[in-house]
Design a protein that fits this description.
With about 950 residues, this protein is α/β, with parallel strands linked by helices. The chain has 30 helices and 31 strands. The strands form eleven sheets. A four-stranded antiparallel β-sheet has the order 6-5-16-18. Strands 10-11-9-12 form a four-stranded mixed β-sheet, with helices on one face. α10 runs antiparallel to α11. The two termini are about 55 Å apart. The structure holds one RNA strand of 77 nucleotides.
Length: about 950
RNA sequence: AGGACUAUAGCUCAGUUGGUUAGAGCGCUACCUUGACAUGGUAGAGGUCGGCGAUUCGAAUUCGCCUAGUCCUACCA
């Protein structure tokens, strides 16, 4: 073994071995345990959030595999419709200046597939580097033909049941991407905007009660006024009673529109008069439906002003009666330019009453980043309300559990108020909607044109054309848990592994994905009793990985970290290139450069996969966001090095030696019995923490045991045995056997979190430990043997540690060199102390670095000494020539003061009658015991201090 | 506006059913190249647990209010 831990030397080769030997695939034996990976974007790359989730998933699946389960971790990617199409469009524009329309649909699709081939390996490469034990033999992609068939089947059966329908509705329209998007893809942002108060003149000489021949409406979107089809006032508003039913003449356009009464108009807000534009505002749309108002769409799909509006009736049918005139100067004008013009024209007419500053929230597309436009279009919708019902029940009755539980509330609040889901997208990259239209626009839903003819009995004289649109990516992702396993085909895999056990994902996609997967699975999959099948039993929600100052990592902020850079390291130059290259907002580059140079002046050194995984596990307290801390990563790399060197020590002392592999007789030292005892407790704790999704506690438990107990104490305690020429072969064999066996167990315990280093070490010591097997991956997870718990040994080691630490404390405080071997006297010891001293003299001499230990009997004269207490027993280090009187007095004072504080605190407690009367007996007794101990210690130290001070 | 979460050492975080001398890592101080490891060892320093109040014999832990921050939902003519 190398002297220092070199992760790069071991990681890739072990992964290759595991994969080649197909260890990741289900074993086919034992109880099933399954998980599906949240499918990442096929052309994307993994960020820290993925690394975090993948570490959790891999730890769970490796743990379950070692528990003997038949484990499946289903892997795959999704096609990420909008994101991928955008990238390829941008690439195309940059390379050839062409748009997708220049190429045409088929040729453009070829370009996307090329891009997928080119960049699609990224993710899977990263996953291999992260050590993820996914079942590569069953890798899936949402655009694979088989998956495509599942998507079509789902769509068609939902349509046939009436749960999918098509309609002309107002939807969220992204004018940049020119597609509809769902509510969830809209992000609200606070913005300082303006409110314009516009005068609308009353027609036919009508006046208001106040005598005005106009009314004033307030609006944040003047440019939509071309599409106004009414002005609403509240029926109860005394100011406008007399004009309800009258008309106004819409400025700039000249159209007469009615003044209607509707509760939507709030008397307290604005002027009490609201312009109603049903084709461009969700509230107005509802008003329009209630009041049967016509709708006029005045915007193009790129959100420019149309040359003439499109008129519709409130039911969505064409209305050719209504005047849709738009003044020529506005034709094809961009929406915000049009806004300025409308305001200017109103001002010129004297119709602009005032402008107010207005704080408001504006909807932006989460992908395109431009303001979303409510747009009247034909779209496909899924009846989410109906689909949601059973999923709510499943969470209510505990069939599906969220960890942490508070996310259930979030889930409920959303599901109980769910809106129909717009599932069509005006994109090319995705699953094309399996719907066909005849010349009259009548729709036929089937997998293909010929299937449609057959299903609907259509003759060849009828021409059919397929719907141009594709499905929302989340529609296909919603099928992920079961379509990856072959649904609609009923097969063994589905039967064995569905429902899956655990889903690990982030809270940000609970609605996008988790809820949709629940809806789809419960509607489309039924168990043998016909009961809706849930997709997973537990949803483990992780927090976000943020940067060191708590900010979200994002490309625009330039604070993104690639998990592989943490593993393999990266130079500052390369990191800068990564962060500032190919930016959407190049103006940020300078700021990012400065920040990166400051934080990573020397780039990032390599830490290895195991250290990264251990860090992520150690930070994974459930549901909490993680602020990434590079120092912590360094600490855990050092931990790996520690393990590595401990293993070297073990190997050096056991290789070629008799370690009792064949069950030879051994004699176990106190330390041997103690470490074995401790190990049992650790085995219980770690398994419990993993089962409870507390990987942070599991990691902490392992860290503490390995570093502080095994390395810190046990390895040191093994030296006096192994290096003692007087030790018997039985004793040496006992210690060697314990050394190597405990290490072997530690490796198995730690393997789910740190797969590589544990495999490497396990391989090199397995024979010494008397075990065989091809890989640690396939070994069983350690299980505690309660018969090995030895409380007497633990108590005796505590005593031993007390004496050693006592001497070391004197040494440290008094500045005595560790090289100086000390003489120690033991005073006021009990019979038990005497016995323990006799039994452990060898350990004490070595670990406390002593020259001599002398047991003082009652009446024996003790020299002036520095004192440490172990219980009632005094550990004395003679001061002569070594220790300064004043230093010792001040050391004692420090101790005495500490005890004084504690004694005062407990005295207060015990002096409180209510405490003594009400607290449980055991608690009171414990306090009494404590204070007695503190008092006797304090007395001894005071006595000692007086003696020394008197010198 | 409604809801959720968070606030513990200089920093990043633990603290399970109320009873601990409130812990870990990093950082800090002093000393140490002792035959696994300086990516190390030994000994230390450092916290009135965001604030106020309540319940209790006893609160970091339970409850209420407040402050700060993060997030979600809704509304904004």
């Amino acid at each position: 073994m190398d002297k220092t831990y070199q992760p790069a030397n071991i990681e890739t080769s072990w992964y290759q071995t595991w994969e080649d030997k197909n260890y990741f695939a289900p074993s086919g034996e034992g109880e099933a345990y399954s998980m599906v990976i949240p499918p990442p974007n096929v052309t994307g790359s993994l960020h820290m959030g993925h690394a975090f989730q993948h570490t959790i998933m891999d730890t769970l699946v490796r743990y379950q595999r070692m528990q003997g389960k038949n484990t499946l971790w289903q892997v795959g990617t999704d096609h990420a419709g909008i994101a991928t199409q955008m990238i390829v469009e941008r690439k195309l524009a940059a390379e050839t200046g062409q748009t997708k329309h220049d190429l045409g649909r088929d040729a453009f699709m070829d370009k996307i597939w090329e891009w997928k081939e080119e960049s699609g390996g990224n993710i899977t490469r990263q996953m291999r580097r992260l050590g993820n034990s996914v079942d590569w033999s069953n890798e899936r992609f949402t655009m694979d033909p088989k998956f495509q068939a599942s998507v079509e089947e789902a769509f068609i059966s939902l349509y046939d049941e009436g749960l999918i329908y098509r309609g002309k509705r107002l939807v969220n329209w992204d004018p940049k991407l020119q597609t509809a998007i769902s509510d969830l893809e809209v992000e609200s942002k606070e913005i300082k905007g303006k409110m314009w108060y516009l005068r609308y003149p009353l027609a036919d000489g009508v006046t208001t009660d106040a005598g005005d021949d106009y009314i004033v409406v307030a609006t944040t979107r003047p440019e939509t006024m071309f599409g106004d089809t009414a002005v609403a006032v509240n029926a109860a508003d005394p100011r406008f009673q007399s004009i309800i039913g009258k008309e106004i003449i819409l400025p700039l356009v000249g159209r007469r529109i009615p003044i209607i009464a509707d509760d939507h108009a709030n008397m307290e807000k604005g002027t009490g008069c609201v312009k109603i534009t049903p084709a461009h505002d969700f509230n107005d749309y509802e008003v329009g439906k209630r009041r049967k108002l016509p709708m006029i769409n005045v915007l193009t799909f790129t959100a420019d002003i149309r040359e003439i509006g499109q008129g519709f009736n409130s039911d969505g049918t064409l209305n050719s009666e209504i005047n849709c005139h738009i003044p020529e100067k506005y034709h094809n004008m961009e929406r915000f330019a049009a806004r300025r013009e409308v305001v200017a024209d109103f001002e010129a007419l004297g119709f602009l009453v005032k402008i107010e500053e207005n704080n408001m929230t504006i909807p932006y597309g989460d992908r395109g980043g431009v303001v979303i436009e409510p747009m009247l279009t034909d779209q496909w919708f899924a009846d989410a309300k109906t689909l949601a019902g059973p999923t709510i029940e499943a969470v209510e009755n505990g069939d599906i559990k969220f960890v942490p539980k508070q996310y259930e509330n979030m889930f409920f609040s959303w599901m109980r108020d769910i809106q129909d889901w717009c599932i069509s997208r005006q994109l090319w990259w995705g699953h094309r909607i399996p719907a066909f239209y005849d010349a009259q626009g009548k729709v036929y839903v089937a997998t293909s044109e010929s299937a449609a003819r057959e299903k609907y009995n259509l003759g060849t004289e009828i021409t059919l054309t397929q719907d141009n649109d594709v499905l929302d990516t989340w529609f296909s992702s919603g099928l992920w848990s079961f379509a990856t396993m072959g649904w609609p085909e009923q097969n063994d895999k589905l039967e064995t592994f569905h429902p899956t056990d655990t889903l690990v994902t982030g809270f940000d996609i609970i609605f996008f994905w988790v809820a949709r997967m629940m809806m789809m699975s419960m509607h489309l999959c039924k168990d043998k009793q016909g009961k809706p099948q849930i997709p997973f039993k537990t949803v483990y929600i992780t927090g976000l990985v943020r940067d060191e100052s708590g900010e979200k990592m994002s490309k625009t902020k330039g604070n993104v970290l690639d998990p592989l850079d943490m593993i393999d390291g990266i130079s500052l130059e390369d990191l800068l290139a990564k962060r500032t290259g190919n930016m959407m907002q190049p103006q940020m580059a300078e700021k990012i450069r400065k920040r990166t140079e400051k934080e990573y002046a020397d780039g990032i050194p390599a830490h290895g996969t195991d250290a990264l995984r251990f860090t992520l596990a150690a930070l994974a307290s459930t549901g909490r966001d993680i602020n990434w801390d590079m120092k912590r990563l360094e600490g855990y790399r050092n931990f790996c090095n520690k393990i590595w060197n401990a293993a070297r020590y073990v190997e050096m002392n056991t290789a070629g030696e008799d370690c009792g592999q064949n069950g030879e007789e051994v004699e176990l030292s106190l330390a041997d019995r103690w470490i074995s005892s401790k190990l049992q407790q650790i085995e219980i704790d770690v398994a419990k923490h993993i089962e409870e999704y507390r990987l942070d506690l599991a990691a902490q438990t392992l860290y503490d045991f390995i570093w502080n107990e095994y390395c810190g104490w046990y390895l040191e305690l093994s030296k006096p045995v192994l290096w003692n020429e007087e030790a018997t072969e039985l004793q040496k064999r006992g210690t060697r056997r314990t050394l190597v066996r405990v290490l072997e167990v530690i490796m198995r315990l730690t393997h789910p979190i740190m797969p590589f280093i544990t495999e490497e070490i396990w391989q090199s010591i397995k024979t010494l430990a008397g075990v065989s097997g091809d890989s640690i991956m396939l070994q069983s997870y350690p299980k505690a043997d309660l018969s090995k718990i030895d409380l007497a040994a633990e108590a005796e080691i505590d005593w031993l540690k007390g004496v050693i630490t006592g001497v070391r404390n004197i040494r440290g405080e008094m500045g005595i060199s560790p090289a100086k071997e000390l003489t120690v006297l033991i005073n006021n010891g009990s019979d038990e102390d005497k016995q323990r001293l006799a039994a452990n003299r060898n350990f004490l001499m070595k670990l406390a670095s002593l020259e001599q230990i002398t047991w003082l009997n009652p009446g024996d004269e003790a020299p002036m000494s520095s004192t440490q207490l172990v219980g009632k027993m005094e550990v004395l280090v003679p001061m002569a020539g070594l220790i300064d009187k004043d230093a010792e007095v001040s050391r004692l004072n420090k101790e005495i003061e500490k005890l004084e504080k504690e004694i005062g605190r407990i005295e207060g407690k015990l002096g409180n009658q209510k405490f003594v009367a009400n607290a449980p007996e055991a608690v009171v007794a414990k306090e009494r015991e404590k204070i007695a101990g503190f008092k006797s210690s304090q007395e001894k130290l005071i006595e000692q201090r007086e003696k020394i001070a008197a010198l």
